[in-house]
Design a protein that fits this description.
The complex is a heterodimer of chains A (356) and B (778).
Chain A: H1 2-14, H2 19-45, E1 65-71, E2 74-79, E3 84-87, E4 95-96, E5 105-110, E6 116-120, E7 125-128, E8 136-139, E9 148-154, E10 157-162, E11 167-170, E12 178-180, E13 184-186, E14 189-191, E15 207-212, E16 218-222, E17 227-230, E18 238-239, E19 248-254, E20 258-263, E21 268-271, E22 279-281, E23 289-294, E24 300-304, E25 309-312, E26 320-322, E27 329-334, E28 340-344, E29 347-350
Antiparallel strand pairs in A: 1-2, 2-3, 3-4, 5-6, 6-7, 7-8, 9-10, 10-11, 11-12, 13-14, 15-16, 16-17, 17-18, 19-20, 20-21, 21-22, 23-24, 24-25, 25-26, 27-28, 28-29
Chain B: H1 2-15, H2 17-35, H3 53-65, E1 70-77, H4 85-99, E2 118-123, E3 126-131, H5 141-153, E4 168-173, H6 187-201, E5 206-212, H7 213-246, H8 249-272, H9 283-308, H10 313-341, H11 348-376, H12 383-403, H13 409-430, H14 450-461, E6 468-474, H15 484-498, E7 503-508, H16 509-520, H17 534-541, E8 557-564, H18 569-585, E9 594-599, H19 600-635, H20 638-662, H21 671-697, H22 702-729, H23 737-768
Antiparallel strand pairs in B: 1-4, 1-5, 2-3, 6-8, 6-9, 7-8
Helix pairs in contact in B: 1-10, 2-8, 2-11, 3-19, 6-7, 7-8, 7-9, 7-22, 8-9, 8-11, 9-10, 9-11, 9-21, 9-22, 10-11, 10-19, 10-21, 12-22, 13-20, 13-23, 16-17, 18-19, 19-20, 19-21, 20-21, 20-23, 21-22, 21-23, 22-23
């Protein structure tokens, strides 16, 4: 393009052109500029798939939702196709908001009533500063094909985890994000990204879910039976003894050192010592378990695929199974008003659970 | 010119009376022999507009994606659930029976006992799966428990077994051509065999429910057989009325005989032209009989009038031949053309009806205008008969006198005013008429028919939408559906479609791959997205074949199936409009993909509705065009056209209003009725007008002329309309909903057309013709 411009310009300056040809050149030049402009506009009108904004659709609130969070009294849901939905009436009505991505969003986290982040496929990180009304794309890496699955921000430090040990950090309270290494510490030695001293293989399993205890200890549930614990605020990680070879999808931390880890094929494990030892709890289901929450009365609810709802009233020592329908559940959240909202493949709504 | 042709024709016919009768007898014998070869011929493609864009797409993809010709057999234990040895043995046997039915696409038979019914589950190691019913199955409690747990891991709950395990399904597709014989599949044979299966395997513990197009055709044919009974009733009623009208057994016999000859000819011509008789086309011989009677009565009436005046039978016959040749020809030609216009609807069954009805009416021209007067010339008339006629005339005379007051201007004004009011009412209501079907299940059958009860059972027990549309995404090259970008476009379109009001659920290759991708990632919903690289996509293709219906063999065509809430026209129209708009906005998806519409049963309905909607106005235009043209030729007067046309138009309008009020939709079955109604109605008008005009020209006063017209012609019109109306009214008790609808409409049209011709026509004439007529009433 530059070449054409240059030649036209030289033509214009060097040749002692007549008035007519000068006008002709001017017309040509402006036509060329206009053409370039139009083609640029057209190009802008058809951006890459990964840069398209989520489309507002009537059924957005009735389709797959993957995570819920509260922002003050508001509930925010994220899901398929970059959908973000807000409910200000405990899950009765939902309203889709504009989001600058069409990628599936897998997780949402609010640091306070206004500041929150959503992460998902193409490693997108979106941020809001107005309780979910408007969203800005902070970071994305579609070519990597490593989706993000969870995040947490406490103070200035925060991290997001995802597929193939994807680990992103923020050190400015979520204003910017940088790719980082998932650092596994063995026997108090820092062994960067290596599990085995003799044959250092990079750890590239999926990191699925984050938990933080009231005492500030972080846990990560990961693929293929891996679980990690961080005592230094989420900078370095220690592998926990694993009771299971299947994937863990999340950990619920409660009462200090108590943990409930939920996994593939209906597996639940209880630890009462910060993950040093685990006990398997019978669930009566083989469904993949997706999320857990502890209610005001101390009972624990675990959700799963195929409509599985597991309830424990004895701090996780036993669970009872409910399966009112076969609609998969992905997330459960307790609102400010102590209502429970359940989300899944048909959207999110107020849970009608006995004992709540 | 006419003044020379008519006497020539008259002498030609009546000089060779015997020859005429012998010729007709011989032809009738031949036609009767031919009619005995008549086959019942039902076919799917006949009922749909094959030239419609949707149907072309449907036909193009039918081979690879199966058609709208599905067959579902549900077995349900009367008590408890399906996990009993008895039930399993039954469904295994019925599956085998269905598998070996003629025309069944064997690759598409699926039940819990077929090897293509599989389950998969995610384990710590990856996928595990197998057939729902293990190969070494035997009906032990352990195996039944195993099948139950396999089902729970599968996606077949709600599809192959009921959501509550109280029924199980066998599904398959029927092909249009039977691959074993290479001939068109005999759907009625399939329907009979299905009924045999039902009788054989239905026990006190197990119910069998069967639905599918073949079954519909079977049930419709069985129902249509009732038409023979209706024909009998109509025949008797007509005979009775004709006897009271003619007061002569011989004349009644001649008239009915000649009408039957017309029917025999019409039926005999069908096999000669390569047609069969269709459950829907069974209407046509009925109409032919009706029209033959209607014209025959005019002939007998004119003949009797001659006898009454003291003519010999031969003279009377000659006179009635000459008098009725022109009005008869006009009326029948108008009928023929009227029916022929229905040919414009590009739906085979309607075109066949148009053709066969047209032929039938053409036959009537021969039988009624030639054979009937010739035979009547042999029917002697004695003084006793004349006396009977005189007595009858004396009895009716005061009635005709009273009725003739409609030809006086004040009464006429009142009638015209009333008609205007009715026209306004009709126009207001007719606007509410619905295109297409409104009722659930199969609209051709009664809502409480066995078939529709079976449909209700199956839709209640299974998460099966029986109302499906398919939209095809054509990649134009092999493996188009394996490409990430293309799949994303399909996914986008599918999401758009599933957001249209009326779409309940969608299925596509893209959706399947999203779930498969999650499956490859331990079933985690985090991965329920389209894979973004080719190796992942390739792995997701493992385990599906083109038999799934999600793609064709070389993955160049990928359908999106839309399960719709119902098949009401407004639902269909809304979905089609939205899909069309998306297609217009996205002429090519991802540079290569093309959207083509549309298949499956609701797709076919969409095409049919559009065709019906598109032909509705043209049909009326052409039918009325024919009426205007022929009336102009016959009477060479604009006033005549107005007198005959306006009552007809009013009746058509009221017919539409009736349909709207009764909830009868405008569809393939009912669309021709309006044209047929006009065809029959115009006969009355033409006869009355012709008679009235000729009597006026004799110099009678206006009212007197109409009184005489009523005596000679109106009389016959009344009897005809009454007998026809009673005849078709029997249809209202048909087991077939569409026949009942047609019965209601035709009864209405026959009666109201008669009223229009007898009362409205003279009222119009009173204001329009008086000016022409120089004489005034005394």
């Amino acid at each position: 393009m530059g070449g054409v411009f240059y030649r036209l310009k030289m033509d214009f300056i060097n040749k002692q052109t007549s008035q007519f040809s000068r006008i002709l050149v001017l017309v040509l030049l402006s036509a060329f500029l206009l053409g370039t402009l139009i083609s640029n506009l057209c190009f802008a009108a058809q951006p890459d798939r990964n840069e398209r904004a989520a489309i507002m659709m009537p059924l957005a609130s009735k389709t797959l939702i993957l995570d819920l969070a509260t922002a003050g009294k508001r509930i925010v849901a994220v899901g398929w196709r970059g959908h973000i939905l807000l409910s200000d009436d405990d899950g009765v009505n939902w309203r889709q908001v504009k989001v600058p991505t069409q990628d599936m969003l897998t997780s949402i986290y609010f640091a306070d009533d206004l500041r929150g982040w959503a992460v998902g496929h193409s490693a997108v990180i979106l941020a809001t500063e107005d309780g979910g009304e408007t969203w800005k794309l902070q970071s994305s890496a579609p070519q990597e094909e490593r989706p993000l699955f969870d995040l947490i921000v406490t103070g200035d430090y925060g991290f997001a985890i995802g597929a193939y040990a994807k680990f992103m950090i923020t050190q400015d309270g979520g204003k910017s994000w940088q790719p980082s290494e998932f650092v596994i510490r063995q026997n108090n030695d820092v062994a960067y990204n290596a599990l085995d001293d003799e044959e250092p293989l990079p750890f590239d399993y999926h990191l699925n879910g984050i938990a933080r205890s009231s005492t500030g200890i972080y846990y990560i549930a990961a693929e293929a039976g891996f679980m990690f614990r961080s005592d230094d605020g989420g900078h370095t990680w220690q592998e926990l003894p694993s009771p299971y070879e299947g994937s863990f999808f999340g950990i619920l931390s409660f009462d200090g050192d108590k943990l409930i880890a939920y996994a593939l094929r209906g597996h639940i494990f209880l630890s009462e010592n910060g993950g040093q030892s685990w006990k398997q709890i019978e669930t009566g289901t083989t469904a993949l378990l997706t999320d857990a929450a502890r209610l005001k009365d101390g009972s624990i609810i675990v959700t799963g695929m195929g409509g599985v709802i597991l309830t424990s009233v004895d701090n996780g020592k036993s669970f009872t199974l409910q399966q009112p329908n076969r609609i998969s559940l992905t997330s459960i959240v307790k609102t400010k008003s102590d209502a429970l909202i359940l989300a899944g493949e048909r959207g999110a709504k107020l849970a009608d659970l006995p004992g709540n | 010119m006419l003044s020379r042709i008519i006497p020539a024709a008259e002498s030609l016919v009546f000089r060779n009376r015997l020859l005429v009768i012998i010729a007709f007898a011989l032809i009738t014998i031949f036609m009767g022999y031919s009619a005995s070869h008549l086959k019942i011929d039902a076919g799917f493609t006949k009922l749909v507009p094959m030239e419609h864009e949707f149907m072309k797409t449907y036909v193009r993809h039918q081979k690879e994606f199966g058609g709208a010709n599905k067959l579902l057999v549900a077995l349900a234990p009367k008590k408890g659930d399906i996990f009993t040895p008895e039930f399993f043995s039954a469904i295994q046997k019925v599956t085998e029976e269905v598998f070996f039915l003629p025309g069944v696409d064997r690759s598409r038979v699926i039940s819990i006992f077929t090897p293509n019914a599989r389950f998969t589950e995610v384990t710590e190691e990856g996928f595990a799966g197998g057939s729902l019913v293990p190969a070494d199955f035997s009906p032990t409690p352990e195996f039944l428990q195993k099948v139950r747990s396999n089902l729970l891991k599968s996606t077949h709950i709600g599809r192959l077994v009921a959501k509550d395990f109280t029924a199980a399904l066998i599904k398959t597709d029927l092909m249009e051509i039977d691959p074993q014989t290479g001939e068109k599949l005999n759907l009625l044979d399939v329907a009979d065999r299905l009924e045999e299966i039902r009788t054989k395997y239905q026990t006190e513990n197990i119910d069998i429910h069967i639905i599918g197009f073949a079954k519909v055709m079977g049930d419709m044919t069985d129902g249509a057989a009732r038409v023979v009974l209706f024909f009998g009733v109509a025949f008797l009623v007509t005979a009775l009325l004709v006897y009271f009208y003619t007061l002569s057994l011989r004349r009644t016999g001649v008239l009915l005989g000649v009408a039957l000859i017309a029917v025999v000819w019409q039926l005999g011509l069908l096999p000669l032209m390569g047609f069969g008789i269709d459950p829907m086309g069974i209407l046509v011989p009925f109409l032919v009989f009706a029209i033959a009677i209607s014209h025959g009565i005019q002939m007998v009436s004119t003949n009797s009038a001659g006898i009454f005046l003291g003519k010999s039978p031969l003279e009377a016959a000659k006179a009635s031949f000459s008098t009725l040749l022109i009005p008869g020809l006009t009326a029948l030609a108008t009928d023929t053309i009227g029916f022929a216009t229905i040919f414009l609807i590009k739906i085979r069954i309607i075109q066949e009806m148009a053709m066969t009805a047209g032929i039938g009416v053409a036959v009537i021209i021969l039988t009624n205008l030639i054979l009937l007067p010739v035979v009547l010339s042999y029917v002697s008339a004695n003084e006793k008969y004349r006396g009977k006629l005189k007595k009858k005339a004396a009895f009716f005379q005061p009635i005709w006198y009273k009725l003739s007051s409609v030809a006086t201007r004040p009464v006429a004004a009142g009638i015209i005013g009333l008609c205007l009011l009715l026209a306004l009412l009709g126009a207001w209501k007719a606007g509410d008429i619905k295109i297409g079907d409104t009722q659930a299940g199969v609209p051709e059958l009664r809502p409480d028919s066995r078939y529709n009860l079976d449909t209700a059972f199956i839709t209640k027990k299974f998460a099966i939408g029986l109302d499906i549309m398919s939209i095809f995404i054509e990649g134009g090259e092999a493996d188009a559906g394996v490409n990430c970008e293309n799949l994303a476009e399909i996914d986008d379109f599918e999401w758009f479609l599933s957001n249209i009001d009326g779409v309940v659920y969608t299925v596509s290759l893209a959706k399947y791959l999203r779930y498969a991708n999650a499956g490859w990632n331990e079933g985690s919903p985090f991965w329920r997205v389209l894979p973004t690289n080719q190796p992942s996509i390739a792995s997701c293709f493992l385990g599906i074949s083109s038999a799934s219906g999600l793609m064709n063999a070389d993955v160049s065509v990928m359908p999106i199936y839309l399960f719709t809430r119902d098949h009401k026209a407004e639902t269909i129209t809304r979905i089609v409009a939205a899909a069309r708009k998306y297609r217009d906005d996205h002429p090519v998806l991802s540079n290569k993909l093309k959207i083509t519409m549309m298949g499956n049963n609701v797709g076919v309905m969409a095409a049919t509705n559009e065709e019906v909607q598109a032909s509705q106005m043209p049909i009326l235009f052409y039918v009325y065009g024919a009426v205007i043209l022929f009336c102009l030729i016959a009477f060479r007067s604009i006033r005549a056209v107005i007198c005959i046309l306006l009552p007809l138009a009013l009746v058509s309008l009221l017919g539409y209003a009736l349909m709207a009020i009764m909830g009868i939709g405008l569809k393939v079955n009912t669309l021709p009725i309006v044209a047929l109604g006009v065809g029959v109605g115009v006969d009355y008008g033409i006869y009355i007008y012709a008679s009235f005009k000729s009597i006026l020209q004799r110099g009678e006063s206006f009212r007197k002329a109409y009184e005489i017209t009523l005596d000679i012609t109106g009389n016959g019109v009344l009897v005809t309309a009454l007998s026809l109306a009673i005849g078709v009214a029997t249809w209202i008790w048909s087991p077939l909903q569409f026949q009942a609808d047609m019965g209601i409409l035709l009864t209405f049209l026959f009666l109201v057309n008669m009223i229009g011709a007898v009362f409205v026509l003279p009222a119009l004439a009173a204001w329009l013709l008086r000016g022409e007529n120089t004489r005034n009433e005394a």
